Amino acid sequence: MTDHRFIRAEVTVDLDAIRHNAALLFAHAEGAEMMAVVKADGYGHGAVEVARAALGAGATWLGACSAEEARALRKAGIDAPILAWLDLPDADVPSDVDLGVSSLEQLRALSGRRIHLKIDTGLARNGCPPRLWPDLVRAAAASDNEVYAIWSHLACADEPGQPSVDRQAQRFADAFRVARDAGLDPKRHLANSAATLNRPDLHFDMVRVGIALYGLNPVPGTMALRPAMTLRSSVVMTRRIAAGERVSYGGSWTAERPTTLALVPVGYADGVPRGLSNRFDVLIGGVRRPVRGLVCMDQIVVDCGDEDIAVGTEVVLFGSGSGGEPTAREWADTLGTIDQEIVTGMSRPRLQRRYTG
Fold it and tell me: Which of 183, 202, 177, 182 is nearest to 192 (CA)?
């Protein structure tokens, strides 16, 4: 298909897909509140726009990583509760934003705030170690802060049947008892996207949905989520080459027969991983066609065989897959990574972002 708009490098975000996913996940949470995690600029989709769509479809909370992210949401006029959980001790977090607290040092720096105490149940990352947990909850109970919730994060919830999930759940239950014994009456949230989908026993008072909100399913086959992001470009030039000609830096691909190449002005500066070189397809004219040679900073080269491809023809690098195009999950599987890394990499300055729905 030929688009009347010439697209150099554009990310399209389908807000109807965000709403669809949020509504499905909220219904699946079965009475628990739902936090829409919009850190990292909404996983590359746009935090403010995604937040509004998710809040309109069932989410009641927003999750942010940093003070800067929380401030951007407030500046946009969003007044839903926000939890910010990872920032420097002297960060200027808006007073109406809840804070995650994992240590006595963090607690002592706060006064008059609403806080969520985080217990490390086995991720060995952020969170209070279990041996220090009784001291933290007692100090929090004696402080002038409001302890709204306790929480933790699961390491392997995307692996159904993984025994570590039950171990973490038991440690979380133990931490809750310690908090109650210290005189606290906190809410609980533990389930990430994967546990929201496959561990209803861990939904508690709130679930935190991240990657599933964007339509990328951490437990494939469990829910009909719709990927919201599409990466597009356009053909800017075509040329015919003879058999034996080599393509791109290092000549890593050699034509076995005469073929037509299409030049597409998008590269690793736009979030297309160089590790995909000679390993992925794009959709041009409704047909998947292979990329030949190395992914360059600003461009890729596509083998179109004997097809006559017009300059300006739309190129879909990845999308929902509904039209036969590659998906972010395909890219991730090829690279041996996760689709979160692919979509969050789409927050590049040269990429235009457009919303539908």
Answer: 202
At residue 60, the 3 state secondary structure works out as coil
Question: Where along the chain do its domains lie?
Answer: 15-214, 229-356
CB 272, CB 295: distance < 8 Å: yes
Query: Whole-prediction pTM value?
Result: 0.94
Write the DSSP string, 22-50. Answer: HHHHHHHTTT-EEEEE-HHHHHTT-HHHH
Question: pLDDT tens digits for 180-227?
Answer: 999 999 999 999 999 999 999 999 999 999 999 999 999 988 899 999
Task: Read off the pLDDT of each residue in 111-123 and give the average, rounded to a whole number.
Answer: 97
Query: Which one from 75, 148, 187, 249 is the annotated catalytic residue?
Result: 249
Tell me the DSSP string of 179-231: HHHTT---EEE---HHHHHH-GGG-TTEEEESGGGGT--SSTTSS-----EEE
Active site residue 118: no
Instruction: List the Cα angle 8/12/18 in 5-degree steps.
Output: 170
Q: Which helix (H) or strand (E) holds 18?
A: helix 15-28
Which sign does the torsion angle of CA 202, 203, 205, 208 carry?
positive
Handedness of CA 204, 205, 211, 212 (dihedral sign): positive
Tell me how crowded residue 238 is: count the other CB atoms within 10 A of its CB: 17
Euclidean distance between CA atoms 26 and 28, whole angstroms: 5
Q: Is the pLDDT of residue 3 over 80?
A: no
- With respect to CATH, is domain 229-356 assigned 3.40.50.1110? no
Active-site residue 148, yes or no?
no
Q: What is the distance between the alpha carbons of residues 207 and 195, in angstroms, rounded to a whole number?
A: 8
CA atoms within 13 A on the CB side of 72: 21
CB 302 within 8 A of CB 292: yes
The domain 15-214 having CATH identifier 3.20.20.10: the answer here is yes
Span 232-246, pLDDT tens digits: 999 999 999 999 999
Cα–Cα distance for residue pair 57/356, rounded to 1 Å: 16
Q: Is there a contact between 230 and 12 (Cβ–Cβ < 8 Å)?
A: yes
Q: What stretch of H or E contains 10?
A: strand 10-14
